[in-house]
Amino acid sequence: MITFEDVSKTYAGPGKQGGDRAALAGVSLSVAPGEVFGVIGASGAGKSTLIRLINGLEKPSGGKVVVDGDDVAALGVEGLRSLRRRVGMIFQHFNLLSSKTVAGNVAFPLKLAGRSDAEVKARTAELLERVGLTDFANKYPAQLSGGQKQRVGIARALATGPKVLLCDEATSALDPETTEQILELVSNLNRELGLTIVLITHEMDVVRRVCDRVAVLEGGKVVETGPVEQVFLHPASATARRFVTEADGVPGEAGAAVDGRVVRLTFRGEATYRPILGAVARETGVDYSILGGRIHRLRETPYGQLTLSLTGGDVEAAIRRFQADGVRVDLVAEAGR
Amino acid sequence: MSAFMENIDWSEIGQATLDTLSMLGGSMVLTVLLGLPLGVILFLTGPSQMLHNRIANGVLSLVINILRSVPFVILLIVMIPLTVALVGTSLGVAGAIPPLVAGAAPFFARLVETALREVDKGVIEASFAMGARRRQVVLGALLPEAMPGLIAAATVTAIALVSYTAMAGVVGAGGLGDLAIRFGYQRFQTDVMVVTVVLLLVLVQALQMVGDAVVRKVSHR
User: Fold this and answer.
1) Where in chain A is the domain with CATH 3.40.50.300?
2) Does the CA dihedral B44-B48-B53-B54 come out positive or negative?
3) Does B126 touch chain A (CB under 8 A)?
4) How far is A238 from chain B (nearest CA, A)?
5) Which end of chain A is more exposed for a tag (fewer CB within 10 A), N or C?
6) Tell me, what's the pLDDT at B48?
7) Which residues in A lie closer than 8 A to residue B139 (C-beta atoms)?
8) Cβ pair B220:A89 closer than 8 A
């Protein structure tokens, strides 16, 4: 649905300082139809530029962006307008027109596309129903809460029946509860309409809840990309590890002043809820102390991750026993003095 | 007390009020018709705007600054030949309108530019992302979003025009200002001066109140 081929983007240097500023360098990635694709990165990593290349709000300096079969940079004015009707976008600060009512905002893209009045009216009502704002049709954005404003944004983005929805930090200005609701709505749209979704965020938690795959962006480069499960449970890059740690709100690994062998166990699905730890300890005579842990859900799949130090008994046997039960074991440190 | 009002010729005051109102109305309409597009172009050709053009923006900006830096009294006199060419006379209400517009339109254009700059850039970006053409962005998003600011700008301009019309009395334009100068000032008829000033005050106050009310009506922020 969307492919980036060695895409770079540089902005003209800031005045006399000279030297262009690179926002993206050699980015390649592809998003499959019907997928929820996350792009995570700190501010200034190039996320905003990346998402704006998809609907042609920015032009690449090098490489090629292909969306729904169109080379975005090669499109003329009308080609670009047609693409933008197939690619909806929602924003961190909603960007609703304060001078128009809720219904007026949702109707705006339809009017821009030259639809008939009857069609605009019917479609607007249908969209407001979908996002649960039928009663708010004649209110102005200033009278709505943040979550309601984002719902209007979503209804507006869906007006022209797009195949792709771009979410530009769509939940970053919302409180946790509202974030939850908006993410659920986005997930439903993906499932029910088969919408391909690209979302950029600086919160791993958002990625964990809704994304199928994720790309980690750092300094304008993709440093890691893969299924959310993989990146979340076994981050390969320092950047990804940092985001995962942030999402958990605990330090990733315990200190070095620990006896025994430090291992990280990863449980997934059913194994998460089985009383494996006690059983293994009894059978192999190994003692364990828990250094860190988390239990969460990745979309629908529960998972747990525990960092343990194992002492005494048959440590090797314990590790084999864990693996036999479908638990992934990573050796973190060969401690002990 | 009757001695205080002895110089007042109410029919003359009435005529002068009408003249002021027609000068104000005529010049205000033309000021908006001319100043609004100028202000929009000034904004759109500005740095990092959708029609960014340094030369066009620089030239337009310079012309506006020149017109704004000429004192209005001087503009009135300098423009006499052009005024005659345009409306056939430099006297009366008709003769006053060209210099009034030349004085007020650049002022209004600057205020329009400022009002447009206040519009949230995100809204403009969102409009483009929805597949709007430039024209649709300007007419459908930029101007409606700036409407409260534009109305406020028009109010300030109308009030500036009231004092310009008073000055236009100097070149024989008629109106309340003319009355104040010829009778109130030059003939020491204080009562005429007081009445004209009070009428101008009422006019300014009314304009401000109406302007504020309309701003409240169109503002949904």
Assistant:
1) 2-246
2) positive
3) yes
4) 33
5) C
6) 85
7) none
8) no
Q: For domain A261-334, is the CATH number 3.30.390.30?
A: no
Tell if the CB–CB gap between B130 and A91 is shorter than 8 Å.
no
> Which residue ranges of chain B lie beneath pLDDT 70?
1-4
Say whether B23 sits in a helix, a strand or coil. helix
Residue for token digits 């109130």?
B184
Q: Tell me what the pLDDT averaged over chain A comes to.
A: 88
Distance CA A156, CA A77 (A): 21
Summarised one tens digit per residue, pLDDT across range A243-293 is 887 766 555 454 555 677 888 888 887 777 778 888 888 888 888 888 878
Superfamily of structural domain A2-246: P-loop containing nucleotide triphosphate hydrolases (3.40.50.300)
Q: Is B139 an 8 Å CB contact of chain A?
A: no
Tell me the shortest Cα–Cα distance from B34 to chain A, in angstroms: 24
Q: Over the stretch B156-189, which tens digit does the pLDDT of each residue have?
A: 999 999 999 988 887 778 888 888 888 888 888 8
* Spatial contact of A46 and A217, defined as CB atoms under 8 Å apart: yes
| Partner residue opposite A108 with nearest CB, options B120, B122, B130 | B130
Quick: pLDDT tens for A161-170.
999 999 999 9
- B118 within 8 A of B80, measured Cβ to Cβ: no
Q: What ipTM, to 2 d.p.? A: 0.85
Longest alpha-carbon distance in chain B: 72
**Rounded CA separation A65/A71 (Å):** 6
Which residue matches tokens 């104000």?
Answer: B24
With CB atoms and an 8 Å threshold, state whether B131 touches A99: no
Instruction: Give me the residue spans of the domains in chain B.
Output: 10-218
Question: In a 3-state reduction of DSSP, which class is residue B77?
Answer: helix
Report yes or no: B40 and B49 within 8 Å, Cβ to Cβ: no
| Range(s) of chain A covered by CATH 3.30.70.260 | 261-334
Question: Of B128, B131, B144, which has the smallest distance from its Cβ to A97's Cβ?
Answer: B144
Spatial distance between the Cα atoms of A44 and A50, rounded to a whole number of angstroms: 11
Q: For chain A, how far is it from start to end, CA to CA, in angstroms?
A: 54
At the fourth CATH level, the homologous superfamily of domain B10-218 is: MetI-like (1.10.3720.10)
